Known about the structure:
Keywords: Oxidoreductase. This protein is an alpha+beta fold. The protein has helices at residues 23-35, 37-40, 56-64, 104-111, 144-150, 160-168, 193-197, and strands at residues 10-13, 42-45, 70-75, 81-86, 89-90, 94-99, 114-120, 127-134, 136-138, 173-178, 183-186. Helices cover 27% and strands 27% of the residues. β7 (114-120) and β8 form a beta hairpin.
Amino acid sequence: MWLASSTKLTVFRFLGDVDHMNPLRRERTSAHNARNVMHDAEVREVIDLGETTMTAEEIDAYLRQEGRFAAVGTVRKDGSPFVVPLGYYYDGDHLYLSSTPDRGLVKRLRRDPRVSVSIFDHEAIHGYVLVNAVAEEIEDPDDHYSLAMHHRYPKPGVDGPEHDRIWLSEGRVVFRIPTADAFGMDQRKATSVHALAMPDKPPSA
């Protein structure tokens, strides 16, 4: 039976006029837009994936699954997207990313904290979670969040304390990303071939 869902995928449209400005004005405008993204961004409902749409509880469980990585999309100076694979830590309300201060990720998020994150698995019948939000740089006393993220991905046969020491040696910068508006899809919830192949459209009579 086709099951309708009230959960909707929400995305943000980045403001297009930023790309045509001179670099200094573009940088200032991008930062202003990011601070006011909930007011300035066009929020629109895009798609309902029916019975394959994850509940909030299923999204929570999916993000806690060990071994998953995130594709993290940020914005370059010229307005183009840049995506990198990263590990993450999740506490039930936020994703946490940790990087060294000189990495491009830190520079891009400090300039424009808008972020689009995709966490997915590699099964033929698969699932994913999408998070479109604004990242916030936070303090991390005693490297709590950095180490929580680091320890989610243990390296077999590697001296753990020594690896931690080297990994922390250049300092870490932590960004927090809210997951309240996360959207998830899991094909494993499909109860028919049609729902698997075309979850956003009811079967024709």
